[in-house]
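Human: I'm a chemist; would you kindly supply sequence and structure tokens for a protein?

Assistant:
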Amino acid sequence: MTVVASAVEAASEHVSSSPTVFARRLNRLFDKLQDEGNRRGNEDVAAAITTAGTKISSSYLWLLRTGRRDNPGHHHIQALAAYFQVPPAYFFDNSLSDAMERELDLIAAMRQPAVRRLAKRAVGLSPGVLDALLVMVGQARQAQGLPALSLSEDPDEQATANDL
């Protein structure tokens, strides 16, 4: 093996073992914004984006998702953002990405049928009853060894269901 070939191989292994920020965020979208029963792979997403008017291949998506390519063109960023219904800045703006991460977690939770049923049944209940339900959910999470969750979507709020 030549020195150049071994350097290329070493660089390739380094890139694949530590995905870029773009790759991590793209993979997060693949993981969180698809229905559990209807997971879409690179081929499905590439076909949908191409059908919408921007040519992209499944192999190029794989390269982006593994971090082997980390500088997609503006048109690909726009198309990916449109497909996953996020602003294009999600891929680059840390403060926006952090806020979007909280939204992605909520969207993923609401895709669970039992969580959706529970949320629908809670609509219209008084604030006091909702607080009591939050306490019960906090106790159930604690009993199952799950971490406590914030009572508010406001990041400045420090109270948890276990604190009530």
Summary: Residues 146 and 158 are 18 Å apart (CA to CA). Confidence is low (pLDDT under 50) at residues 2-17, 153-164.
